[in-house]
Design goal:
The protein has 313 residues and is α+β, with helices and mostly antiparallel strands. It has eight helices and eight strands. The strands form two sheets. It has a five-stranded antiparallel beta sheet with strand order 4-3-2-1-5. The chain is elongated.
Length: 313
Amino acid sequence: MDLIDTQLSAWFAEFWTSKLALFLAGALVAVIAVRVLQGLASRSIRDTASRYRVRKFIGFVGYLLVALILLSSLSERIGQFSVVFGVAGAGIAFSLQEVIASIAGWIAIQFGGFYRPGDRVQLGGIKGDVIDIGMLRTTLMEIGDWISGDIYNGRVVRVANSFVFKEPVYNYSGEFAFLWDEFTLPVRFGSDWRLASKLIVEAVEAEVGEYTEGARRNWAVMVNRFLIEDAAVEPRVTVMITDNWIAFTARYVVDYRVRRKVKSAIMERLLIAFEEHKDQVRFASTTVELVAAPPLRFGDSYDPIAAKRDYRP
């Protein structure tokens, strides 16, 4: 028994001193080469998107080289380690199941088309622009939260890739890079409602006309690819009569990156247009009309019970 222990110890010492040294040397060379190539890419490539993709590709090749070096260093003895690897692998898989799920999520993201760098998504309850996709986590530049509207709030959020299997992934810029947006505008009764509708249509078309044709072509691709109806992307205005005013609802397609900016520009145009036609159209607001009031009495002789009795609406 002592002889076997001695032989095993000697075998392990020989194996690890030679193979581990080989692996570390090869991995060090691979890491240095990756860093040098990424630095060259950063300095020589001007386009941000191309520079990002080249750096990520170089990093992926570096990971692959390190894995190949590890396999080649263990190739001679890998059969002798099969049982040990099997037991250790089961324990590692159980303890690192979230890590494994994130790696599986990374593979799904790369080949499943969930999203790409530059897309605007909502992932794990966080909404933002994808600025990096790592093997374990996706990095988002967050938008919204305490900031109203679709603008950055300054926080960088890292979300585990495993969320693509756990929660819905909302992509604002995937196959269809536009969004439908709308607003409701109240107009006072007695206004020229035809003129009001015309002014709203003109204001909307002036701001979103440049997006309509692109949205139409993009939607045609969607119709050919998916089982989906051929929806209208042109601006539309509908009218609804309420108890207090005439409600005009404008619906239009806009680029997801400028949704708030375009809505603000439309509102500015409408303010100017309604001001120019203030004798014909006016914005509405909530109005409270007092139909009747109880009699008011002042002085020491005021009797609230009698006032309530004498009150006639």
